[in-house]
Amino acid sequence: MQDIHQMVWDGGLNIQIEVDQSLVFGSDEYKPCYINVRLPRESYFPLYLRSLLYRIKSDLKKDIDEVVPYIWFEQNDANLPWNIPIGTLYDIMNPYVAGIPLDETSLGSSIQVWKIKMRYGDNPPPNHIPLLNGLDQIQKYWMHQWKQACFVLNGSSKQVMSLKTDDSKAFWRSVLTRDGHMFSLTSHKIIPTTPRNIPIMVHHQTDVDYLSQPLVVPHNESWETTSIQTVIDSSGFVTSNKGALVVVSQGIDIPTNMLIEELYKDFVSFDGFLHIVIH
Prior knowledge:
By secondary structure, the protein is of the alpha+beta class. The chain is built from ten helices and ten strands. The strands form two sheets. A five-stranded mixed sheet has the order 2-1-5-3-4. A five-stranded mixed sheet has the order 7-6-10-8-9. The relative contact order is 0.15.
């Protein structure tokens, strides 16, 4: 992995999760149950759900297998969709701290902690995708994302569809085991040196339901290169004060004059897309 992409892959978040009261045993005077954990930005919440629940196994009212399909995560009563990378969710939901390195706040030695809630019940939010088939469902969704990204990059999904079975399994396993080297070996077979288009997802601050996927070419017919500002303009995002825009990708403030192809090569997410958040 290149140095910048390695830093992206290794990026993590300190998270404090308040567990739904209905999940755990409690006394007459309820005391919140918390799970403190550090999770990678480049992953999905459900991939760590069982290990999180295992930490409080002795306090759970039901077996882990019984509760997993009925759990989702929230911040400020807003659902955090599991199909968006963890780091991107953080960047969407925390506009005032996005772009500040996790261990370098304005207080110097202070450490930022993302506080969210683990919800449980049979009436999830409308934008929650039920996890009925566990890891298999997540893997299929993730591979579908790569097929889409491959089509945008190459004009077809051949590079993904033609992967050997062992390579496909190793690719997914690299996500589960956080093996950056193995991930790079396979992703480089999909991502061309000169992409036809750039697979990108544009998100809006505090709104997990806002998503734009503009068709982004690295350069136009006159070979004029495409900048982040061009992408913002084409995404349909409307603001009354463009000078105040902040664009965040992988937790870092990105200059709007940066070339989109360069940003993709360094900041591409583990699902094959470049995720940017407009604040």
